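Marked as duplicate of an earlier ticket. Keeping the data here for the record.
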Amino acid sequence: MPECNSLLMENMTVEEVRKALRKTKTILVPLGVVEQHGYHLPLSTDIHNAYEMSKLVAQKTGSIVAPSLNYSFSGGTLPGTININPQTMSLVVGDICHSLAEQGFKNIILILGHAGTENINALRDTVILLLRKNSQWKDLVLSLVPVWEFSPTWMNAFKKHDFHAAYIETSLMMYWKPELVRKKVVMDRPYLANLMRSHQDNYLVIKKPVDSKYVTPYLKQRPDIKVGVMGDPAGANAKLGEKVANECAAGIAKLIMKIEKETKRKNIR
């Protein structure tokens, strides 16, 4: 497998990017967020889940890794969380994709380290519109990749209500960056912790000024949330993190190889 450092665009020169484009037309764009992850994980958790995963995939595929975009919409408001509008984030991503396509990249893989319905919907709209408005790119592939969907272990944990800053994310951070994981695990009060574990959107208070499906609700974070863990980090370990990371990377690498193989055989549009 190629050394990952040689595949990081941010470390390359102009000449090295030109040479890389002769070997591959695939680039990974990591997308994260600056967001609270309890008292035991850093605000950069989802950034690492996107960027470190991209590096792992690059080792398997030889794809280039673009610099990560570290800002998007969290919806939470605990200290340290930085929100930008989903539309703002998606417009920036659209401009990044446009720039990369103009340089000659044919397969642009957006690696999502952070979920959020608002983010994903905005991104989908942007990439669809980008292709519609740029018919000159006859062979461009844009792919939106939520990393968790490629790990059976991670998806199974969701069924057990392991969501935000819990068992899986803590294990991943113990694998990626163990020096950033704190030993101090704190939970919100039991009723809040159980409420957020029952559904990941239960951190929100939703109110309508008028009871009608035509009226837009008010949404805000519950004011009594102080920590924000959704699940239970107990028992997290680096070995599990490595397993989940490898499952994700293998699945994403398989997708990339499928894209590269099938786009060589035909004109896309």
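See parent ticket for discussion. The helical segments are 14-23, 45-61, 86-103, 117-133, 152-159, 167-176, 190-198, 238-263.
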